[in-house]
Amino acid sequence: MKLFCFKILVLFCLSGFYSYSQELVPPIQNFSPSEYVAASQNWDIAVDERGVVYTANNQGLLVFDGLNWELFPLESQSIIRSVYPHNGRIYTGSYQEFGYWETTDEGCMTYNSLTPLMDEINMQSDEFWEITSHNDAIYFRSFGAVYKYQDNKITKIEDLVSTALGRFQDKLLLAPRKNGIVYVNDSGAIKPLEGNPGVIEDLNIIDLESSGDTLYIGAREGLYFYSNNRFKRFWNDKLNSLLAKTELNHIISVSGNELVLGTIKNGIIHYNIKEDSFHVFNRNSGLQNNTILGMAYARDKLWLALDNGVDLIELNSPIKFYTDNTGELGAVYDLQIYRDNYYLASNTGVYRFSNEKLELIDNGADHAWNLELIDNVLYANHNTGTYKIINNQFIPVETRTGSFSIIKRDKEEQLLVCHYTGLSLYNPALEEIRELEAVNFPVKEVVFEGENKIWAAHPYEGIYKITTGSWEDIQVEKIPALGNSENFSPEIYKINDQIISYVNEQWYKYNPFTDKFENFKELHAYDSCRLIIKDDYNKYVFVDSNDGSLIITNLKGDKLSIPAQKLNNRLVKGNENFISLNDSISFVTLNDGFARINLKKVQKEMEDQWISTPILKEFSDEVKRYSLEGSPVIPYRNAKNISLKAGMPVSEAMELKYTLNGEEKLSGTVNGGQVNFRNLKHGDYNLQLSAIGGSLNQVSSENFNFTIAPPWYFSIWMKTVYAFILVAIFFLVFWLNQQKLKKHQLQLEEKFEKEHSERLNRLEKQRLMNEIDLKRKELANTTMMAAKKNEVLMEIQGELNKDKNKFSNQFRIKHIMNKINNAVKNKDEWKVFETNFNEVHEDFFKDLLEQYPKLTSKDLKLCSYLKMNLSSKEIAPLMGISVRGVEVHRYRLRKKMKLESDVNLTKFLIKNF
What is the per-residue DSSP string for 562-578? Predict the structure, then answer.
């Protein structure tokens, strides 16, 4: 019987746990041991003012910068039990070891042990489980004692065995084992907390947490509180009963009206004091483990140190999720709230979500596309047909073929069913359905224009216009392809009585006057976005095909963007759906459940969101790390690969970007927390890390300057050498130019002297030529005068010879004839002629005799007259012979000179001598 009762009790407890597992839960992010690459167990967790997370792990200090996890083990490899960031230091406690971690200028984490300060304190296998600060001092607790660290000294606060450590109203509180609560006064003495300690007497207190004027006391037996100097047991008996079963381990106050209670057996309990209600989040809700060993709360984010991993919960997120971890539900395509129950259409069937439980509708298995509430009747478009859902059962409307959607035209009782082979008309009152045979192709959705026109979207082949005066006379016309390619998977809408189509990432509107679709310029900004719904609250919801974000707008300037990351990238791509419950609450279908969104809270969160400042953790080249405090100078030979590591603490930031300005300009996204710059040019650079929020105008930045030194051949010393060489080259060129100028001057002087000498020579030559010409003329004149004279004398002599017998004195005549003959052959005249001839024709006779040594003086005389180009007639009187005698002499001279008969003697002498 006892065994049976125990089993019933266990079953009751488990069913109690399950009742909280299927509710809508805030976003939960899991960090498994395989992701952070350290031990499973995490004993404590804390967040510093930058948003960096520190976890006390079995293998050391685990640090999460928002992008990467890093493990820093102790030299002793001890388990770290507690962690507490304070004033730039990270204090940690482990087995017989206490100290703090600091970040060096280069970004390295270094550990400084404070254990040597406790050499005079008798520690007995102490292990430090809790650390806090109070009045500029650090207090750390083991199960054996509490210690104080201040001014580089460590002292023990009496010999007190404490199970909890806390602060309340500027007092440091301690919880002696099963002996109430005490505080440390200004002098360091231990005093009991005023009030009625009997309420908490003999309690095993495990945690203390203050919130305003209230101190919350966690014990194994339940939750208590202290207010107005009175101890009381917490008023919610249901909560205390649950805590007793699940073993309370930690308490944290997240606001004036909210507590989070960490348990050993059932995850966390989120309690709202104002509403006196609570929610349980455990493994079934998405936690990795039900054992909560540590908690930290910062900027609306709750961090959990688990027995297996680390989890992050956004407790007050405006987006809450239902997630089917079993995989039974599959991808959800539509959601309707009908009679206070959620109905889900998914790729595995139609489900009802009621009383936080999920159940499949009878006969509702298989793919379901759509749920539609018409005239208070819920219809389902299913892979096997069209159904009504009544009393949790599928009631067939048409099962001949699967259907996509069902729609009602205003003021008509009949419904139009879009199915796999066309359209059907359904009369709910008569429960009659008939197929419209004129439409013999699949129709995914339709919109009505007026009373006699229907626009239908084929799921694959384009848009059709269906005209009908009545349902008996139907005309079908396929619309030519919009744009430059086939209209695969078009979408058709009716917005403000205007027909709109979205095809191939382009928006078109129908112009009834031209009977054509035209580019819809008003929606040009949304060309990359599909419209998934226009609801009754004048909201237009688009999904961006580039990044998967949801854009909610009224097309009048108001816009709210929900990044895909906010929905954990779980949208059903290509079949996204957005269902509005009212103007604030909406639902989004996901690939493993659905999300509930409070749009007003999302808007407020976007306006008040905190964007963390990026952290530059390491800056190094191929050889060394550099200080992050200044502006390092990197040697050029080491700058072929510059790497940096950065962090972006968890916030509303969506991505981390970098911008490098300097000799080169680069930009991009920091993936995995690391960026490499290769082969940068030398010069000065500014690196900017920017955390980008959900809205692009929300940015938080960090700047870092560095310099790449020039290569050795561009260094200061080499530039000095280059300057010296340039100066030397300048002076060398100057000297060479001077030498060249001097040489040129000498050449000019030489040229001038030469030209001057040549000019003088020319003048002298000209003078000599003139003199020669003058002498030649004188010689010619003298010769001609002598020729004339001799010619006259010879004529006189000839006349006298004719009449010599008439003269009485023959002796006298003979004497006169002799004088005339002597005058003609005067040797003095020849000498004068010879002298003048030699002055004009120097070396003529010498050269002539050298070549013809047998020439006589008479031959030479004839040659000289021929050189002067005198004719035989002119030569005859000069030689005192007849012209005939001259010819004979010339003939003999030719013989002596052995000249051919065709050679002109005069020309020969003029040319060669």
Answer: E-GGGGTT-B-TT---E
